[in-house]
Structure formats: structure tokens, C-alpha cells
Write a structure and sequence with these properties.
The chain is of the alpha+beta class. The protein has helices at 2-14, 44-51, 63-68, 70-78, 171-187, 190-200, 219-244, 252-272, 279-294, 296-301, 305-337, 343-368; strands at 24-32, 35-43, 81-85, 88-89, 91-102, 105-115, 123-127, 138-145, 148-154, 160-163, 205-208, 211-214. The protein is 51% helix and 21% strand.
């Protein structure tokens, strides 16, 4: 039991280094015959980590520092991108370097041109940016040709993909791409996982006479978890959809700070036991906030109108599938450990203390916009 608690604490503590949105870049390629125009949005924090753009180490990358590093940035990025048309390599030439702001910070916007010797055959893209530095990095790609848009997601296990330019993108392909991204997003969304875990930890217990006692049998535990997970799912699916479809919008810092606060409150509730019989409503209320945070990936992609609903559906299905895997793994373990008399004090309360500590670090970082080092 002591080993389990130490494992929970170490895992929770390690999450503080992953408090922010995972590393993504956004590449749009517009194909017009032999001419290809590209726009590649890459996070400044990622480029700084790879290239050291902050020359004076003041924690702020200025336009002057970025402009001075233009050639280095283009050389680094374009050497990790390959475009082939009809199995013939295309030549990449840098264009204007700009800056844009996404939901998680400032991005360098690398505009470039590509000239291809062939105008027939499929377009192949090879992508290797940051995979040697960050295995969680994702490249989100949109290819536009004659009014049609096809999408793909690159990761360390998928660094090459092919686009058939004279065919409409397959509906199943779009669903599969964004379903996979939804699963991955929830698995590395440690704030969402810790919120859900905080709600699941007391599911096998009942609060009576000022103390946590184990429930009789697995059935009441299952129905408790079913209610909490269903409420959380309905809530975040609702606001995820409304946000991606542009019916709802809140500043990113507010949303991310509120998510961190929800994790802390859920953990504190396990320690002080205020909402012992209303965790379902607690899950639904804060699930509305979590949905807006989950939507950030799709918003930053700038999805075309024709594919927005389909991409949203695939992504949401992936999120729910990933969440079911997490619940399926946690529920039997929680039900088993709750039979031991040390579970309320060691697993529930000490685990919740660790989660609350990490959440408070996240809250400070997100609300005050700074990065805290705990090591």
C-alpha cells in the first residue's frame, strides 16, 4: 500500500511539468499545379527549446531575436519536412516569417513556397519536426486542392502520409484521424485525468457518521462511477461542440485556470468531504469547463467549414474511447483496494493531497502565466 501511495505521488508530481497544452504544430499546404504554398505555425516555446532563441535569457522572445534567427529557424524546420509530387521531390524556399497567437501562446508562422517538377500523382508529406526532442509532439496537417481539404496527423509512429489530390477525402479517414487524436489528447491531458481520478477515488466508499466506509459489493460502486462518468462526458461533449462550432468562446487563460481549480476542488472534496452525495453534479458543472479546454486542439487547427462537424465527431468519439479505457483500468483497482481499512487514509486522502498540490501549481502557472520548476 505504501508503495502504491508513493507511486501515485510521484506520478502526480511529474504531471506538473506537463501542465500546459501538448506540443503541436499546424501546417497548411495549398496545391495549385506545380506551385505549392505552405504556412507552418510552430510554437515559439518549442523552437526556443530546440534552438535557443532567447538570446539574453530573459524569458521573453522578442521580434528582434526571432528575426535574427530567421535563417536558423527555416533551415531547422524545412530540413524536417519533405514534399514529393508523383514521387519527385519538391524544392522548398523560405518566404515571410511572421508571428501569430494561438490558444496556448505565440507561434512563429513560417511561410514557404514549394516547386515540384511533376504535376501528376499523389502528394507525399514526410514530417520529422521535434520527434527527437518530444515524443508527444504532433503535426496537424491540412492539404487544400481545388476547394477540397484533406487532413492528417503526424506523430513519431506516423511520419509519412500520402494525399490523393484528385479524390475527395474519405469520411472514414477523417473520422479515424481525429478519433486517434482524441484518444491521444485525453491520454496526455493529465489535468482531465486527475480531475476524473479525484472523482473516482471515493466511488467505492460511503460517507457515514463522519467517516469513509467501504460500500457493500461492486454494484453500487459501478453505478456511482457510471453516474459520475456520464455526467462528465455529457458536459464536456456539450461545450466541446459549442466551442468548436463557435457558439461559445472564453479566453484560454480563464478556461485553463478554471480547469486547474476544478482539479484542486475535486481533490479537496475528498479530504474535507463537502459534496459527498453530489459528485455527479460536481462532475457535470466542471465538465462544462473541461470541454472548452479539450476544444483547443481543434480550434487551433482552423478546420474548414465542410469538415468541421465530421472532425468534431471523430475527435469527440476518440476522447470518450480514451476516457473509457482510463475508467476501465481504474475502477477494478479502486474497488479492490477499497476493501482494505487503510484505503480512506492512505489512498483516498494522501492521493488527493498529492493531486491538490499539483493542481495548485497548475493554477498558479496558468493564472499568473509563468512556468514553475519543482525539481
Amino acid at each position: 500500500m505504501i508503495r502504491l501511495i508513493l507511486t501515485i505521488w510521484l506520478l502526480a508530481a511529474s504531471f506538473s511539468a506537463l501542465a500546459h497544452k501538448p506540443s503541436d504544430s499546424y501546417l497548411t499546404v495549398q496545391v495549385d499545379g506545380r506551385q505549392i504554398a505552405g504556412q507552418w505555425d510552430i510554437a515559439l516555446r518549442d523552437l526556443d527549446y530546440a534552438l535557443g532563441l532567447d538570446a539574453n535569457d530573459d524569458g521573453n522572445i522578442t521580434w528582434a531575436e526571432l528575426r535574427e534567427s530567421r535563417d536558423v529557424i527555416y533551415t531547422y524546420a524545412l530540413s524536417r519536412l519533405q514534399l514529393d509530387m508523383g514521387k519527385q521531390a519538391c524544392s522548398l524556399q523560405p518566404s515571410n516569417l511572421l508571428v501569430d497567437e494561438h490558444s496556448d501562446g505565440h507561434y512563429a508562422v513560417l511561410n514557404f513556397q514549394a516547386t515540384c517538377s511533376s504535376t501528376s500523382g499523389p502528394l507525399s508529406l514526410g514530417y520529422r519536426l521535434f520527434f527527437d526532442l518530444d515524443p508527444q509532439h504532433r503535426g496537424l496537417i491540412s492539404v487544400v486542392h481545388e476547394g477540397q481539404t484533406d487532413t492528417a496527423i503526424f506523430n513519431p509512429d506516423r511520419q509519412l502520409t500520402e494525399f490523393v489530390l484528385d479524390a475527395d477525402p474519405s469520411l472514414w479517414r477523417v473520422l479515424a484521424h481525429f478519433g486517434d487524436e482524441g484518444i491521444w489528447h485525453i491520454w496526455i491531458g493529465f489535468d482531465h485525468i486527475l480531475f476524473l481520478l479525484s472523482l473516482l477515488l471515493p466511488a467505492a466508499l460511503i460517507w457515514e457518521k463522519g467517516a469513509w466506509l467501504p460500500k457493500a459489493g461492486f454494484k453500487p460502486v459501478f453505478y456511482d462511477v457510471l453516474g459520475v462518468v456520464t455526467a462528465f462526458t455529457l458536459a464536456h461533449s456539450l461545450t466541446l461542440s459549442l466551442t468548436v462550432l463557435h457558439f461559445l468562446s472564453l479566453p484560454s487563460r480563464w478556461v485553463e485556470s478554471a480547469i486547474a481549480a476544478s482539479v484542486a476542488l475535486a481533490a479537496f472534496n475528498n479530504i474535507y468531504s463537502v459534496f459527498t452525495t453530489r459528485r455527479t453534479w460536481f462532475a457535470f458543472g466542471f465538465g462544462l469547463i473541461h470541454g472548452m479546454g479539450i476544444a483547443s486542439v481543434l480550434l487551433d487547427m482552423g478546420l474548414p467549414e465542410a469538415q468541421r462537424v465530421l472532425s468534431l465527431l471523430g475527435f469527440n468519439l476518440g476522447v470518450e474511447a480514451g476516457q473509457l479505457v482510463i475508467v476501465g483500468a481504474a475502477l477494478p483497482l479502486i474497488a479492490y483496494l477499497s476493501r482494505y481499512r487503510y484505503y480512506p487514509a492512505l489512498v483516498l486522502k494522501m492521493g488527493s493531497v498529492s493531486i491538490a498540490g499539483v493542481a495548485l501549481v497548475w493554477l498558479a502557472e496558468r493564472s499568473l502565466d509563468f512556468q514553475m520548476s519543482i525539481w
